[in-house]
Write a structure and sequence with these properties.
Layout (H helix, E strand, L loop, with lengths): L1 H6 L2 H17 L3 H18 L2 H17 L3 H16 L5 H22 L5 H19 L5 H17 L3 H17 L3 H13 L4
Helix pairs in contact: 2-3, 3-4, 4-5, 4-6, 5-6, 6-7, 6-8, 7-8, 8-9, 8-10, 9-10
């Protein structure tokens, strides 16, 4: 990190902060990860790099969802979505933010144990629409597409559509295995084990 700071290469520092944040998040060091992601986001904002601002915002939003900080997560995810939708449109950023928004909706429903309530069902149907839109964007890179497929399975599960959830999770798992996305593949396996009749 000291070489990067000495070089003054702000884009490189932003990417390095993201990588360090990912490592911290993987080690469940959420406070450290959040600090690193916010620093990277501040640098991306300083550079006026819309793609990094949107991506880093989405990543921060995902971290906040994982911690149950839903209001803050909604703010940064919606910011990521608005940045991605600004002209010219950035479809990969839009798709990534839509996937995060769908996961946020699912987390809110799970937190409230409201999957069977009318409001919970409505939120899940909105999440399904978010994911369908994300997956319809042809420019979504494979890791983000696989994350969206897993989110789609989660939505089906919460809606009680277990056979569909199993099919979708297996598709995500197959893609994760094919492209060597180990962390996503592990999440797919954990999800499949939750399904009735697993």
């Amino acid at each position: 990190m000291s070489y990067v700071e000495q070089s003054g290469d702000i884009p490189l520092k932003s990417v390095l902060l993201y990588n360090l944040g990912e490592l911290a998040a993987a080690g469940r060091q959420f406070d450290r990860a959040e600090k690193l992601f916010r620093e990277g986001l501040a640098l991306a904002t300083q550079m006026k790099d819309r793609e990094y601002v949107s991506t880093w915002s989405t990543i921060l939003g995902n971290l906040l969802v994982e911690q149950g900080r839903f209001k803050e997560a909604a703010e940064v995810i919606l910011h990521a979505l608005s940045v991605g939708r600004a002209r010219p449109l950035n479809q990969p950023c839009i798709g990534f933010a839509l996937t995060a928004l769908a996961n946020l909706r699912c987390a809110l429903v799970e937190n409230a144990r409201a999957a069977k309530s009318p409001g919970g069902r409505r939120a899940l149907l909105h999440a399904r629409t978010d994911i369908q839109r994300a997956l319809s964007l042809g420019e979504l890179e494979i890791e983000r597409r696989t994350q969206a497929q897993l989110a789609q399975a989660r939505i089906s599960y919460l809606l009680g559509e277990f056979p569909l959830a199993r099919i979708q999770a297996r598709q995500a798992s197959d893609a994760a295995q094919q492209y060597e996305l180990q962390a996503i593949q592990e999440r797919c396996q954990q999800f499949l084990e939750l399904l009735p009749g697993a």
